[in-house]
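Provenance

Sequences were taken from public entries as deposited. Structures were produced by running a predictor on each sequence independently, with no templates supplied. The record for Putrescine oxidase from Microbacterium foliorum is shown for reference.
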Amino acid sequence: MAEITRDVLIVGAGAAGLTAANDLRKAGLSVAVLEARDRVGGRLWTDVIDGAMLELGGQWVSPDQDALKDTIDELGLETYSRYREGDSVYVGPDGQVHRFTGEMFPVSAATEAVIAEITERLDAMVAEIDPDQPWAHPRAAEWDSVTWDAWLRAQTDDDEAVLNLAFATGSAMLTKPTHSFSLLQSLHMAASAGSYSNLVDADFILDQRVVGGLQKVPLLLAERLGDDVLLNQPVRSLEWSDDGVTATTDELTVRARFAILAHAPVLYSRIAFEPPLPRRQHQLHQHLSMGFVIKVHAVYDRPFWREQGLSGTAFSPYELAHEAYDNTNHGDERGTLVGFVSDQNADDLFALSAEERKERILASLSHYYGPEATDPVVYYESDWGTEEWTRGAYAASFDMGGLHRYGADLRTAVGPIHFACSDMAGAGFQHVDGAIRMGHLVASTIVESRRAAGDQAEVG
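Predicted structure for Putrescine oxidase:
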């Protein structure tokens, strides 16, 4: 078995791990990045399916995502705006299709007033939350003991208002049923985007895309690291002590002073730690789980919805595809729609045959865009739940009470082992921006600890 020695071992070649590796190299440290998959990028994956370039994972860039925007600029990549000219579409509880412009759904005046009032209240609550430590809020324990759904239903008996307010953090972001996570987790999700209003504003959250796909970010970061990125190397065991770490794959042994686990926390259990991780981590990691959403790609010979004066933006808490957008690639004559089917609905669909699943999803899209939506030239479902090295989408979040109970320990190093990924970010939580922020943070922590150790040695 081959053996190599480095200053820092990084497990996972996603945006967090590759950012950390590049920062460490710039600081003069040697690195090795071990990636279980046969590609870099983690939950960023741009692929060609039946001749169509599709972004199977993350893809959008928001105005507040400075870490991601700085990386895009530094790598020399170009961005372009999501198409949004024309009317959006909303399907109400009666199945009626309503065209509208602006942020507010075309609901009754009474429901609109309720949504506006509760949104204002949520924005005020979110403004008190530090996204890096939501558990520090004086009411954190209280807010972590009530479900997001229960809190909303305690504010109003207007069911349409509740469903529209709930899905921004439920189906759309955490991709879990709204009864399964807490008010605090929902407020943290909103705080990570700056406000609840930002989170529900599609023109803010889904603003720009990278020409050629967002996976170009990790691909170019990995290119700079050359042979220090090793693919098809799942780490089977990790021995650790105060002196360093030894990682073993099926083909390789890597010795290093530090390790960074830069992958989804639901995968920590795939590594045999020697000695075992401390009890606190054993407990903590059991209270994190992935959400689940199907990202649906439908490519047409042209963006036919634009001919109807539609932007492609569509929402409904009553539809199988709860939201959809114009996802046409830069400079492409064909039109692409992307739709999302989340949590319980996604589970239910995978009980069906592939053909019936496709038929149901396209029928839902047709409720927004008309019958032409049922006849794409390319159709593909991103199913991250089947990905061995991801196991869900978009990211991991805590179960009820878990954020207040364990959140403060999420990034805490264990001896020489450090943790970094989008699932533990404050700003940019669950996004590529958060992954990059965590990569920068953990790299600077290691550089500082080495510097402090060097200073101590000199004093000694």
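The chain has a mean pLDDT of 96.
Residues 2-44+215-277+414-459 form a domain with the FAD/NAD(P)-binding domain fold (CATH 3.50.50.60).
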